[in-house]
Amino acid sequence: xxxxxxxxxxxxxxxxxxVREMYNILSSVLKECGINELTEGRYQGNPARSYAVAxxxxxxxxxxxxxxxxxxxxxxxGCGHGLLLQEAKRQGISGKGITLSQKQLEDHQDxxxxxxxxxxxxxxxxxxxxxxDGVCAIGSLEHFVSPQEAAGGxxxxxxxxxxxxxxxxxxxxxxxxxxxIHYLPNMILRPKMARNQFFEPWRWCTPDFHLGSVAWLGxxxxxxxxxxxxxxxxxxxxxxxxxDGTKDYYLTSEVWIKKIRSALLRLKFSKEIFSGxxxxxxxxxxxxxxxxxxxxxxxxxxxxxxxxxxxxxxRYVWERK
Length: 321
Ligand SMILES: C[S@@+](CC[C@H](N)C(=O)[O-])C[C@H]1O[C@@H](n2cnc3c(N)ncnc32)[C@H](O)[C@@H]1O
Known about the structure:
The protein is an alpha/beta fold and 321 residues long. The chain has 13 helices and seven strands. It has one domain (13-320): Vaccinia Virus protein VP39 (Rossmann fold). The protein has a seven-stranded mixed β-sheet with strand order 3-2-1-4-5-7-6, with helices on both faces. Helix 3 (83-90) links the parallel strand 1 and strand 2. Helix 1 runs antiparallel to helix 11 (271-279), helix 2 (51-65) crosses helix 3 (83-90) and helix 11 crosses helix 12. The model has no long low-confidence stretch (mean pLDDT 94).
């Protein structure tokens, strides 16, 4: 019998490696800065809320959005350091997680997690078919399409495959929760700009520079607002909820940069940054400059002269028919 019936584009191996290595280095460096969380907290418009509380509330909220309860089964696609799975475990929900980063996996030996690209799920995990009451992809979808795939015009094929895999994973009536940074229709990154622009100083601090640097360094290419909704509908998902979480990501990223700066002032560097430098000198130096000096990450969520932020963090909840 054929194991895989879904048409999933093959794993883009160079891209997968770039994302994996980036998280292996970044996760360890951020940990030195006291940052374990890789996506936004829940502030509900209250900037005075503490970072730790906002992060805790966000995990609870995501599980609520997925309508998960004790005894249910969930899959976290791109589980990072396992925060959502820890909260699920605390609530008696049986969680599994997949990630591309070995370093992240080391953090959750007490959880049911493994190294796996979602594109390989139907082939490697045939037993997962219709197993889950909820599937979450929190801050991972930004990496699902490589800039090369976007340039080759197959971005929507990849998203379509992602929704088909999620449909395959979910029980009827199960929920899919996705949070992802989006390009705005008037500021979509041209895929060829996802590159090192350090030696093009005339571009420094332009939208192309910030978005292109983040895409190149992070192995990311974002969907455009609205794009996922029509693709999910084609796959038989009902849109249950759609939220703009950009302010939450703004507040979270401002705390991150403060934590990173204070770690630098304390000269707290992890050994990973040095091994990262040895293996990827350009990425490491450029990454450091883009995050700390040009603040390209934070730029994405900051208001631009009264016009609002140049990207949007969208939270979606879909129900499988
Ligand atoms: C920004 S982190 C988010 C981590 C976590 N969800 C959180 O909220 O802190 C992105 C995660 O997605 C994972 N990821 C990216 N592309 C993936 C893919 N194709 N398959 C599985 N995991 C992937 C990365 O390894 C990483 O764990």
